[in-house]
Amino acid sequence: MTTIGSIKRRKTGHAVATCLSDLPIGTSLEHAASFLAQPSRAIFAVALTNPPNESRYTSIAGTDWDNLDFGEIEEELAASLSDDDLSGILQHIDAVDNVKRLKLTNCKIITGVGLEPLRGSTIIEQIDLSLYGVRCGPVIRPEPPLM
After folding, report:
1. Greatest CA separation found in the chain?
2. Which of 62, 80, 132 is nearest to 103 (CA)?
3. Residues 6+ apart with CB under 8 A from 92
4. Any idea what DSSP says for residue 75?
């Protein structure tokens, strides 16, 4: 009688990360995040953070937050951001003390409640609520007839 061997995993004694948030803070996550657009870095850091107000991944988000422009990320991602998402991002990067210019390009479902973390800011200079980027505009279908 022939028995079929089974493949077994060896225990190595090393802790195994089961999800990204279990990985140690250090160069690998920070290095990967360095390739992302600035708003994406903040979104990535917030996604790793549990509980939401934990500041463990601040180094992933970075520190240069004079300008936060959601026009730098994919339109579909920006369009799906809710007020809760925006609030979490602004809290994570301490926007009240860091952000001078905020551009909510393509953030189409934001109602304004997510801007609460900016209350009391003494450095905010501009909040751009435009739905479309520079030299872009909504497409009107069907186009109205020209007279």
Report:
1. 89
2. 132
3. 42, 45, 46, 49, 55, 57, 58, 61
4. H
Chain CA centroid to CA 100, Å: 18
Q: What is the pLDDT of residues 65-90, one digit of tens each?
A: 899 999 999 999 999 999 999 999 99
Is the distance from CB of 26 to CB of 59 less than 8 angstroms? Answer: no
* Strand-pair category, 126-128 with 67-69: unpaired
Edge-first strand order for the sheet with 67-69 is 67-69, 101-103, 126-128
| Residue the block writes with tokens 């061997």 | 5
Nearest C-alpha neighbor of 91 from the set 58, 60, 124, 69:
58
pTM equals 0.69
Asked if residue 68 lies in contact with residue 38, where contact means CB atoms within 8 angstroms, the answer is: yes
- Residues 103 and 69: their CA atoms lie apart, in Å, by 5
Return phi, psi of residue 8, to 5°.
-115, 145
State the CB neighbour count (10 A cutoff) for residue 62.
16
Is omega for the bond preceding 142 within 30 degrees of 0, making it cis?
A: yes
Sequence-ordered strand ranges (E) for 21-133 = 67-69, 101-103, 126-128
Q: Are 109 and 135 in contact (CB under 8 A)?
A: no
